[in-house]
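Tokens for Cytochrome c oxidase subunit 8. Go.
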Amino acid sequence: MSVLMPQLLRGLTGLTQRLPVQRAQIHSKPPREQLGTMDVAVGLTSCFLCFLLPSGWVLSHLESYKKWE
């Protein structure tokens, strides 16, 4: 490590302490109406179909992807 490294790191950390940090003002309220069983079922089914089904298909056909054609 060079002699200038501690001075460089001290300069970089000092720079980050002076920068203003913007924070998001996110406030949440309770839902106006409760979610029903059908709403939850549709949401979970769509998440399964969109994310887990394609990745499962790729993983199940991984051996065919490894073959050279």
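The chain has three helices and no strands.
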